[in-house]
Amino acid sequence: MSHLRERATARLVKLGDKQPGSFEMASDGKSLILRKSSGHIAKVSISKGPTGNPESGKSKPVAYRAEMTIDGEKEREHLFMHCWRQVQRKFYRPDLHGVDWVAMKDSYARFLPHIQNKHDFSELLSEMLGELNASHTGSRYRKRSPNADQTASLGLLFGDGSGDGSQVIAEVLNEGPCDRADSRIKPGDHLVAVDGVALDSNVNLWQLLNRKAKKPLLATLREADGAETWDEVIKPISSGEERELLYQRWVKRSRDLVKELSQDTIGYIHVRGMDDSSYRHVYDEALGRFSDHRALIVDTRFNGGGWLHDQLITFLGGESYCQLQPRGKKPGQMGGEPMNRWSRPVLVIQNEGNYSDAHFFPYSFKTLGVGKLLGTPVAGTATAVWWEVMMDGETVFGIPQ
């Protein structure tokens, strides 16, 4: 709540959670109606009390019951037509690559009465959109299922089987749940039981880890020579957290390899996505960790795209035009201009895992003569896409614009 004359701001009500929402003024002008993303509604008083002070903090939940009956067949028919019309309006070429879009509607709409679920419906949309022979399109449906299986991870990589059903530990992931000062686990040890269930040829380890993320479990381990067996309490992480650890492991191995082969004269940076956080990472690494290195390897492999080509080209394409020479130092020993861009040699790596703006960046990098490319050729296209979440909140389709 703002008091404009006093140029002061005061808290009207404390929500007590981090759920996003929206609010609007009630018709009487004495209350705000607060709507949270969870569906909850509250009424917040903003009128003055008997003493003339605002009744701040007085929030009352509004109880309601709302039910909706959805005709799935009619909804799918509507979503189908909405997708068809949007493509006709927004596709980047008015001729739709020469495709008879009206004929496509008639050809695919006849399957609608035979579709009973959103998985098949999304596949139908993808087939129709595929007739355009364009990238950055298609449909996907991801069912929201909070009770689905969720296999947790111990942060361990396993090697070849031991023959007795136990799992041989090949590596302990850095910063994983077993990378602790008080843990004895090391490569070569055997994982022999989880929560008292012995691992053998009839027991699936991953079933024992289902829905165990963030929950302590008891792991029984044996030394490689079988001399000793002991128990440790481990709190597993989610599969998504494990993927992050594996990604950081891959980056570190690549960086260490470049450091070793170049005798620490060339820096290595992986550009994870074409987005703001990736740009900040490149900037930080180039002008921080590798500020005194002779050259950079910028790895864009497996980059799914975004919108960062120009920022990267500008940053990596700096040209030295000034050297600083303080007294007693050699020219350039203390740097020069530009200070906020990289002006030394750069090599960009790419592969078939690049997509979208991660196609355009290598193409621009080479065409503008900033440096050389290494790796699998990429298409070099530059496509901007409109991804739209439809009214059911679960079906998504794309239109290259």
Question: Characteristics of this structure?
Answer:
single chain; 401 residues; alpha+beta; four-stranded antiparallel sheet
Concise overview:
With 401 residues, the protein is an alpha+beta fold.
Kindly describe this structure.
By secondary structure, the protein is an alpha+beta fold. The protein is 25% helix and 22% strand. It has helices at 72-90, 101-109, 118-130, 205-208, 239-261, 276-289, 309-316, 357-367, and strands spanning 2-3, 8-9, 21-25, 31-36, 41-45, 59-62, 138-141, 156-158, 167-172, 190-194, 197-198, 217-222, 229-234, 266-270, 295-299, 322-323, 336-337, 346-350, 372-375, 385-389, 395-400. The strands form six sheets. Strands 8, 9, 10, 11, 12 and 13 form a six-stranded antiparallel sheet that branches. Strands 3-4-5-6 form a four-stranded antiparallel sheet, with no helix packed on it. Helix 6 (276-289) links the parallel strand 14 (266-270) and strand 15.
